[in-house]
Write a structure and sequence with these properties.
5 helices, 8% strand, mainly alpha, 105 residues
């Protein structure tokens, strides 16, 4: 890679050469036909992939199509008792697991 000008030594480290031209390197190595064939194949595969996506992708849904009006999607704030328990350093697990609690799990 050093002989092709792609990397160079800088003290104890290897660094990429910013001016390395891959087309020029391919020409020097005599592989431009292979590079052109590879680019052509990639373009055909990309076109086939985008055609597949166009056939199979689902359209974006509007918010009113996603939201279920019959379901209850709201947060129940903690009661004063739960807040006091949390503030006193106790976990609310014991409160939530208490059958007398209306929010019993």
């Amino acid at each position: 890679m050093t002989g092709l000008g792609m990397i160079h030594r800088d003290g104890r480290h290897w660094k990429f050469t910013a001016t390395a031209n891959l087309s020029r390197i391919a020409t020097r190595l005599g592989v431009m036909d292979d590079v052109a064939a590879h680019i052509t194949r990639n373009r055909k595969e990309r076109a086939a992939w985008h055609a597949w996506l166009d056939r199979h992708i689902t359209p974006a849904l509007a918010t009113h199509e996603i939201y279920d009006h019959d379901a209850e999607h709201h947060w129940i704030p903690p009661t004063d008792e739960e807040t006091e328990t949390q503030d006193s350093g106790h976990t609310s697990d014991s409160l939530l697991l208490n059958p007398s609690n209306p929010r019993f799990l």
